[in-house]
Amino acid sequence: MTSSNSKAQTETWWFLPLLAFSVAVAPLSIDMYLPAMTIMGEALNASVAQMHLSLSAYLLGYASFHLLSGPLADSYGRKTLLLAGFGLYVLGSLGCAQSESIEALIGFRVLQGIGGCVGPTLARTIARDVYGPVDAARAISLVAMMMAVAPAIAPLAGGFVLLVWEWPFIFYTLAVYGVINCLLVFYLLDETLPVKHAFRPKVILANYAELLRHPQFLWITGGASLNYGALMTFLPSAPFVFITLMGLKTQYLAFIFVGTVGGYMVGNAISARASYRFDSKHIMLVGACLSVLATFGMCFGYWFAPMSIGAVAGPMVLYSASLGLVQPHAMALALRPFGHIAGTGSSLLGFIQMTTSALASAFVGQFLVDSAWPMLVGMFGFTVLGLTTLLAANKAVRLS
Questions:
Q1: pLDDT level of residue 14 (50, 70, 90 thresholds)
Q2: For the stretch 16-46, what's the b/e string if a residue is b when 16 or more beta carbons lie within 10 angstroms of its beta carbon?
């Protein structure tokens, strides 16, 4: 695609919403089935830990294909890979809907994650292609702000499906979403790949080695991944904590997630606006500090009022807002020196982030028995480690 075509595409009203629609596949795949987790556990005879694994399985599939999606996109184009990935996502979603055991569900969740990873990965890459290394952070923030509608709607939609149909229809709905994505990409998106690179394993390994040797990429990606891991600890734990431990009715769980999504939208709006006045480094570090403050507030609230939903859910809104400050600017900083291999860089970033999240979710799930403390301590620990890593990055390298 020529640079003039790229500029023309960004001036269309639907360009950023189209990227947001592709990115939304991830939160929809995670959040839409959360209200059904307890029902699914009973139907599939699965424990809390096994239901945690159904999320970890999606994240592991999502993470693993990152390592190939970027190089494939650099070789064959962004549009081609988006179409192939969303096609695979549809197959995985249909498999989940027809699963009759927790083992089958976990297997198809891996397939669903492999296909679904192309949306967020290549949206970041396309933003880097079109907007350049500096303005990409603003574009990513705007996309994230628009995309935040998805996790707000997803739990409500999942709860509505449960009122009318059985839980498999949640995954049938996701399959339809994948089909719509395929049609939109096919008819609306132009190719943004500036120059095609031959798909050579030696070159791919050399590119990954270049990324892993670069302190800015390694430190920033590590810190952002730990920060994001706290969210993936909260999401699968929330049904158990709020419904089983605190007695919240299943149909009201969606409103907990709506509150957290509202915080995320506000954080991204502030992030996009602040990027006109402050550099990405300072916005990212302020956000990481807020993450620690918020997760500490969740621990503090639960300590004094263990049956109070607001004591935990309230500070979670602040943590969600902090994500809107940390994640887009961390991604932009990590990828800034790598315009020549933006797809590969985005892939490795996603792999590290999602693998960290999958391990965090699976680990905490093993300890959730009769208390919310495993979730809360885990979230606090991840945000502290994330802030420490990002502060170390600021000292170790000159963030540019």
A1: low
A2: bebbbbbbbbbbbbbbbbbbbbbebbeebeb
Q: Answer whether 154's CB lies under 8 Å from 28's CB.
A: yes
- Compute the chain's Rg from CA coordinates: 20
Tokens encoding 188: 């609306």
Phi-psi region of 132 (alpha: psi -120 to 50; beta: other; left: phi over 0): left
**Residue 225 neighbours by CB distance under 10 Å:** 25
Q: What are phi and psi of 307, to 5 degrees?
A: -105, 5
Terminus-to-terminus CA distance in the chain, angstroms? 28
Structure tokens at 203: 């070159």
Q: Identify the pLDDT of residue 119.
A: 82
For residues 192 and 130, the answer to whether their CB atoms sit within 8 Å is yes
The answer to whether the CB of 350 falls within 8 A of the CB of 335 is no
pTM: predicted TM-score of the whole model, two decimal places: 0.73
CA atoms in the 13 A half-sphere facing the CB of 321:
18
Q: What pLDDT, on the 0 to 100 scale, is given for residue 3?
A: 47
| Residue 221 burial (10 A CB sphere; 0-12, 13-18, 19+) | buried
Q: Which amino acid is at 224?
A: A
Cβ–Cβ < 8 Å for 178, 89: yes
Tens-digit pLDDT profile for residues 149-160: 666 677 777 777
Residue 227 CB contacts under 8 Å (≥ 6 apart), including other chains? 288, 291, 322, 323, 326, 327, 330, 382, 383, 386, 387, 390
Q: Which residues contact 382 (CB under 8 A, 6 or more apart)?
A: 226, 227, 229, 230, 233, 295, 360
Query: pLDDT digit string (tens) for 203-227?
Result: 778 888 888 888 888 889 899 999 9
Find the helix packing angle between 201-213 and 48-76, rounded to 10°: 110
